[in-house]
Amino acid sequence: MSTLVEDNPAKHRFEILVDDALAGFTAYVPRGEVLVFTHTEVDRGFQGKGVGGTLIRGTLDQLRARGTTVVPQCPFMSAFIDKHPEYADLVADLP
């Protein structure tokens, strides 16, 4: 199973492709240098396979490389960060 996480700025979301098929996304609202993440969705056919975690990890890794911080209003992203404290430094207050 090959995966690719990429930003789709036109739709304000990061998407995960699994074997070239759109498997899920995490949506954001830009607020200056901060991205407010509001919703994460994984297609039913890909649930329970770690796709959501791979999506969030890939998103946060890319944002760290850019120097961007996040406000995880989405419960899924928030729970992921709680379970993976190595990403806690990316969390910002709402501007």
UniProtKB/TrEMBL annotation:
Database matches in Gene3D superfamilies: 3.40.630.30
GO molecular function: transferase activity
Superkingdom of source: Bacteria
Pfam families attached to this UniProt entry: Acetyltransf_CG (PF14542)
PROSITE patterns: GNAT_YJDJ (PS51729)
Domain N-acetyltransferase, residue spans: 6-92
UniProtKB keywords: Transferase
Identification of the protein by name: GNAT family N-acetyltransferase
Record organism: Micromonospora arida
